[in-house]
Design brief:
This protein is of the alpha/beta class. The chain contains eight helices and nine strands. The chain is globular.
Amino acid sequence: MTDIAVTIAGSDSGGGAGIQADLKTFAALGVYGASVVAALTAQNTKGVSAIHDVPEAFIAAQMDAVFSDLNVGAVKIGMLSNAAAIIAVVEGLERHRIANVVLDPVMIATSGDRLLKPDAVDTLRRRLIPKAIVLTPNLAEAAALLDTPIASDEVAMQNQATRLLGLGPRAVLIKGGHAGGERSVDLLVDADGVERLDAPRFATRNTHGTGCTLSAALAAGLAKGLTLSDAARAAKNYVTAAIAAADRLSVGWGHGPVHHFFRHW
């Protein structure tokens, strides 16, 4: 049986994040990737210049087409720019009884551009987060979801992840990539406890799409039948290596992409 994962997210015309990063990640990890485009962005390594929302009826049509035909092992959800899109995705997940959902609450791009309309945050909290087997916020996203200051240490990260569990996901992988220090530490928190995922930090400006890549790699692991813990560790190792190899690429003049195909090129 072919392992299949689906990304429901926004398109990045620059190729470094969003749908494009997710499909590259699936392919690099040996998983067949399908997609539901929820938004279009005019974007490059320097920032986002425009966003075009996909009508919710067309989001639903894409979901129905994919899930009625493909034997999907896991779903990664990324950028959903407005409340109507979020509701369309929730209803599609319910309609097709999709369980293995990795939710990356994409709110702000690496460039600082806002990708989720402020009035949609409550819909994200109430309707979509409870559908997730794992929620994967970075430090800024976790703080925004909780209306609290950004965590400054691992104790605060764990506390925020525990509070996010109260919104309904089965687990929270809170990402410390934007913190300082020589190590990049993520925490996988669920009802059974905390697992610390630790990796070296690499000095590079080419970090565009790291969050998308990590959540897509996590979905790929779940699609291949790994446990959540094993999938999270494999995803952390993959994105760390992709960051380490990022400077082998020369793409654009801003924050370039990580190297998804470091094992193959």
